[in-house]
Task: structure prediction
Amino acid sequence: MKKKNLMQEIWKARYLYLCLIPLFVWLVIFQYGPMYGVILAFKKYSAKLGIWGSQWVGLSNFKRIFMTPIATKAIVNTLQISISRLVWEFPMGILVAILLTEMPGKRGKKVIQTVLTFPHFLSWVVVACILRNFLGSDGAVNVLFEQLGLDTVNFLGSERLFRPLLYATANWKEMGWSAIIYMAAIAGIDPTLYEAAECDGASRLKRIWHITLPGIRTTIAIMFILAVGGIMSAGFDQIFNMNNAMVADTARILDIYVYDLTFKSVPDYGFTTAVGMFTAVINLVMLLGANQVVYRLTGEKMFR
Result:
């Protein structure tokens, strides 16, 4: 009976399901179809023999990841940068959303929100060019230092300053955009809760702590789980455009390492596929682990 009712409901919405056909075709062709190439991770690829004819080497490519010093250093760099991003970048969207929500006056709030959101629409190519114009060896900041009689600073070529610049520019570019999600969640909180708290004498900080943050707890949990699920990515676009020879050791994450192997040397597709698969598996494990940890701590989870 249930199957019959289900088929009836599907038939009633048959035109909507027909609209989904292009999506499914796209998924099959461009997402699931290329997945057979994952077997390259277990082979020593030869263009002459093709994917199926290449020599099977088992887990040798994965063992090379941990036996190659540059690869292990790239793993360490990736984890360090990604964890630091969680500390310095993830909370900024929440903070900006709360500050904008608490601001009096609609006009000023809209202006500031627009100013903070606009950088999101700039590509990292453009942002990197802006940084070079301002912080390069002959950029505006160093020219100003010279005119003031101060020593110039190699901002973009300093390993000590490279990662702080990553976090600062990423916050400048993305915190306004990420705040939109949290502002939408805050808008869904019952305003009578704030009115009741104000009548009881609760200060603004207490209202934020006891009403706003618990009210957006589910959104924070989901966004945190997604952020942890991409921990092995570390922001390729940004690092690729800000990278240079002087900070190569500090900036070499796994994605940069794979890019260098593929385009700057004789490509080893079996090994680079193994690195990509290793990254994907770690991201999946971290996603599932973060989901369980957040569930145990807050009772919220992304999926059951």
Notes: The beta strands are 43-44, 55-56. The chain is about 70% helix and 0% strand. The longest strand covers residues 43-44.
